[in-house]
What does this fold into?
Amino acid sequence: MSALLTITDVNKSFGGLKALSEVNLSVEQGSVHAIIGPNGAGKSTLLNVLIGKLIPDTGAVMFDGVSLLGLQPHEINQVGVSRVFQTPEIFGELSLIHNVIISTLASRDGAFNLAFWNRVDEDAEITDKAEELLADVGLLEKKDMISSSLSRGDKRRLELAMCLVQQPKLLLLDEPTAGMSRADTNSTIDLLKRIGEERGITKVIIEHDMHVVFSLAQKITVLAQGTPICEGKPEEIKGDPRVQEAYLGGAHL
Amino acid sequence: MNAAIATASSKAQPHAGEAPPNKGADLRNFAIFAVAILSMPLWLQPLGVAYPAFMQKIAIFGTLAIGFNLLFGLTGYLSFGHAAFLGVGSYAAVWSFKLLSMNAVPALIFGTLFGGLFALAIGFISLRRTGIYFSILTLAFAQMAYNLAYSVLTPITNGETALQVVKDDPRVLDAMFGAVGTSSAPVPNLFGMALTGDAGLIGFYFCALLMIGAFYISMRIFRSPFGMMLRAIKTNQQRMRFTGLNPRPYALAVFVVSGMYAGLAGSMMAVVDPLAGAERMQWTASGEVVLMTILGGSGTLIGPVLGAGAIKYFEVKLVEYNKTKLGEIFSFLPDSISDAVVSVSSLFVGGGWHLTLGLIFMLVVIFLPGGIVQGLGKLTSWVRRRTSSSNSASSKSADASQPAE
Ligand SMILES: Nc1ncnc2c1ncn2[C@@H]1O[C@H](COP(=O)(O)OP(=O)(O)OP(=O)(O)O)[C@@H](O)[C@H]1O
Ligand SMILES: [Mg+2]
It folds into this structure.
């Protein structure tokens, strides 16, 4: 198996705080790779580096044969990286269907397209796909609602639909089930499993909910204070004393 | 008609679960709009403003506001410099009259083109910032253009005297096609058909058709993928970037389109009155189109036109009044009271009409942030509720006993 994403010696400091130090990580093509660790470990910061929101102080990030460093956020998305944020980022003033249509258009027509004469609602290719994904996440009946009025869990599912419709090569999920009920969490796990199998999307998932981690991940990396402290299969990680200690240590800090 | 227009732009206050209008509804609303505009000479009659000069103004400022709304209403970028593009359009059109031909077509083309070119230059720089900084940059550029027009650029703008068409301008195209020279300065025409002077309503219909075209294009943009990306800019640029979209070229493109609309409006001004002065570029003129758009309902299709119409109507009506007229109105009051009432109310009319405009604007922003369109929407839903409840009430009473009729 080959690596889709390789992170080499990445460092990132905020003032005196070392948020990421010497991070080395490689994500296998087609796998689900979980990153866990206590609050403030640097998990979201790592994803921010991957999508071009933050530029690391040193290090290299290779994705599918191209370096992501120096690319603009929209260019990184266009090469096949989509992200679900820890706090849902959606187009709050627009309807659900328009949210999904926008990301469908972005993946079909590119970063800029001056199509000002044709009607979106008559572009069946786009609207069908958008509705299909809304149905997949169970939001189809709400498609004309303004998305800011959704519950937090629904916003998260909308954001997931916006990412999935792009059929990215790599999907980054920052706590995708936070704020969801147990039932919703389970249906999201099912959805992620199904989509993963159907479309072969590689996923990096950050999650505090160990139930989610152990049902999805094939590989787990534990991050503590900006550094990966161990990596392995779920069953290996479960019993590792260093992990227990990292979580307890994190709680003490 | 109001009901149809209100539904045409139901985007003002989006109700949960309401689908946007489909193509059929859009075409119907467009047809209603076109008929309403073209029949203005009839239905403005009772309001006492059915004269060409006023109706031309509606068409010209309507066009300006429609273009402004594409930028502000969709992307949220508030430009305070649109008067510059208006002025540039006027100058370009008058130069086209002077150098090429009195035909309106090249004048409109050059006006639109130069409006767009100026917007490209100003937008390229201003769009590096967002929010208030963007607004201030556009304002600064427009003020610069205004000052330059009075100073360095007087060879092009003719300074305070304003740029005018004179009898012996070169007009190479007219000369080539042997248009007959007249004794006085020639008037703008459309392939020989005069558009000003004794033309009566022809100048109005010319402008009205241009505005209807401008409205149609705006409608297409609203419903297009491009228009959707403009809304995305307003809502969440961050999400847009991480969705693979580059907001900058979208914002610049719509800024240029908006500048072209302003350039077109400026050249329409030159067509109905072939002269261009720098006062057209003053910041108050930039502010006026902001007021029109917000008053009518920004981000809606019809709002900007309603706002332009309302403000221009208030202007002519309030300017008409003066102390003597007010004195006649309040003459039924005892002298001492009537004097006081007249002197207070005279502050709000005549040259002071801006004070009234300011008050109206404040009331609208506070109570109807969606502008006139939101007001009409509320009104129609209220009427609908009233009629449906009275219908059911009367049918109930009909069941119970004989109707009172
Ligand atoms: N933009 C920023 N500026 C300054 N400090 C930051 C910034 N972003 C993150 N940090 C700091 O870097 C550290 C790592 O934060 P990060 O958000 O990556 O943690 P996390 O592992 O995602 O935690 P959580 O589980 O709470 O989401 C924290 O101490 C945080 O305060
Ligand atoms: Mg985080």
Notes: Chain A has a mean pLDDT of 91. The two ends of chain A are 38 Å apart (CA to CA). The longest helix of chain A spans residues 182-199. Chain A has nine helices and ten strands.
